[in-house]
Amino acid sequence: MNQHILRFLEGPGKGVITVPEAGQLGCSPTVLKKLFRDDTLTRVAIGTYVSTAQLHTPVRDGKQLHDYALAEHQHLLRLDALLRLHGPKVAASHQSAVLAWGLPTAKSSLERIHLVHTKRGRTARRRETHSLHTCELDDVITRHEGRLVVIPALAVIGQAMEVGLMAGVGGMDAAIVAQHTTRSELGEMVEKLRHSPGLGLARRAIELTDGLAESPGETRLRLVLIELGFSFRAQHWIRIGESAIYYRVDFYLHELGVVLEYDGQGKYGDDRKAADSGKPRSAGSANQALTDEKAREDDLRLDGFGVGRVTSSTLTAEKVRKIVTTAQRQAQPSAVHRPAEPPPWARAS
Asked: Phi, psi at residue 248, to the nearest 5°?
């Protein structure tokens, strides 16, 4: 009988099995308990289990997952177990729904699963591993990639209320970039929730969201710049002299003539800036990408801009201030208050 369960987990169960599903395979709850005791199964809640091997040693594209990717995988697998157990009575909410939509959240928030009743008049409950919320709004539950989830606008607002400002803005930025929602829809959703406690964080997150950041790191850098009191323009187009070379920079501090770029994980797999430059760029190795970035930086400096680079390890107010100060010393007067000059193909018709 154990083999029936193992085959189910590897196949249609996708790493999850509930007590009713085991019964359909001819296996009693006693069999599941035995597999739990020998660590073949991990219990998520009474009545539902996941494969321990798939939970702790998952493989994607032939490689084991680590750090945030592993925490995300484990959260979604446990979420699927609870959704399977409760059926259409519940949907994913808060940061669980944020992950289900493919949006970022804080790793520290992934220990607890968040669900919401799909019908009104239910009672909120907090279990050891998950929270079950209530929702009195209409038309906020949908299905995405097989999961019942709240719509993105409600998910990211819930995340801001539950996790905090940084994660809230990051989720909202990502949702807007992915065209899952808009700032106006976020504002409308907050008004619908106006009697909910803790809504001030969500309102502030919407104020700080611009939908231009292309990574959580850029969102965090924008918040640091706001904290430091710098005026800036995000995703600003710069034309190099009178040439046909154009760059879109992450942040332009127009009062200082400074360009700030965020270097995060996966950046060199992103050819956005190569395409923005107007120069031919190969899609080859990381070494070529580094060469391209160096050429881009040299062009900006020769045109009078001070250039600073921020990484995850320098993403603090104190270090960002030092980077800006150093870059400001390089800047020429011609780089101050430079208007945006997008290339012809990027201009609004």
From this structure: -105, 115
Q: What is the pTM of this model?
A: 0.84
| 48 secondary structure, DSSP code | E
Asked if residues 77 and 113 have their Cβ atoms less than 8 Å apart, the reply is no
DSSP per-residue string spanning 239-293: E-TTSS-EEEEEEEETTTTEEEEEE-TTGGG--HHHHHHSS------HHHHHHHH
| Contact indicator for 239, 341 with CB cutoff of 8 Å | yes
Is the pLDDT higher at 66 or at 251?
251
Reported as a single tens digit per residue, the pLDDT across 295-349 is: 899 999 999 999 999 999 999 999 999 999 999 999 999 999 999 999 988 876 4
Positive or negative, the CA dihedral 215, 111, 206, 315 is: negative
- Alpha-carbon distance of 349 to 346, in angstroms, equals 9
Q: Using an 8 Å Cβ cutoff, are 246 and 237 in contact?
A: yes
Which of 68, 251, 274, 297 minimizes the C-alpha distance to 167? 68
CA distance 337 to 238: 11
DSSP string, 304-349: T-EEEEEEGGG-SHHHHHHHHHHHHHH--GGGTTPPP---GGGS--
298: amino acid identity, one letter: D
Q: Determine the distance from the C-alpha atom of residue 311 to the mean position of all C-alpha atoms in its chain, rounded to a whole number.
A: 17
Report whether 4 contacts 25 (CB < 8 A): yes
Contact 49, 81 (CB under 8 A): yes
Residue with tokens 């909202």: 172
Q: Write the CA distances from 321 to 258, 298, 325, 328, integer angstroms.
A: 12, 22, 6, 10
Residue 165: other Cβ atoms inside 10 A? 15
CB 209 within 8 A of CB 183: yes
Could you read off the pLDDT of 177-211 as tens digits, one per residue? 999 999 999 999 999 999 888 899 999 999 999 98
